[in-house]
Design a protein that fits this description.
With 252 residues, the chain is mostly helical. The chain contains ten helices and no strands.
Amino acid sequence: MRVDSDNSGRPAEGPGPLESVAPRSPGREAPERELTRERLVLAAVELAEADGPNGVGLREVARRAGVTHAAPYRHFADREQLLVAVAERGFKELMEHCLELQRVCGDDPLDRFWALGFGYFTFAVERPGLFRAMFSPEAARAEALRASEAAVFSLCVSAIVAAQREGLVAEDDPQLLALVAWSSMHGAAMLYLDGLVSWVGIGGSAHEIAGRLARQVFNGFLPRPDREGDASATKKPRRPPARRPGGPSPSR
């Protein structure tokens, strides 16, 4: 059996070996298929964690998962489809990471908003290979990922809306504000991963930098008393979040 050198295509010839020669009952086949797919995805995530999206190859994934070289093609049409599954898993884990930080924060809307920025940045710097796979060209082309991306984005929108209801965030389109927040933290995370944050002279641990960056983004969304026509400016005074999971205390 011949396989493309970059592991990105189907076997060029021959049916390839079967995963098992034992007959399977219809009731067993579906759960076994799901388990095999899960093993393949976990192996691909491990490769992405180690070497980014370029480190994910079908043959190596099969070897790590303990299945035949032909097995991945029963679950993924090609390498790109496997990378999309890796990215989908990454967004799921990013969402769980941010939700856990919000849970620690409690019900304070500003703390919960801040936790998203802090969580996004720390996830990126703690799991850089997976993070890059989540935003690889293959992932960007995949319509199947839009729902996973939207689920994370909706956390930010919901946090902004909750803070706006209490007059703690400027009254503007929450979708636009969420996009500004996402763009800021994503760009900062990529700059950090590329070594450019230290290059401009910003020092400290990743968590300290995450806290400082998230605070600056957060401060930009607070109501401004001197902003003409901003009804939210008179509702409540400006204040930073009271608690910040894992980050430095805010300066008042």
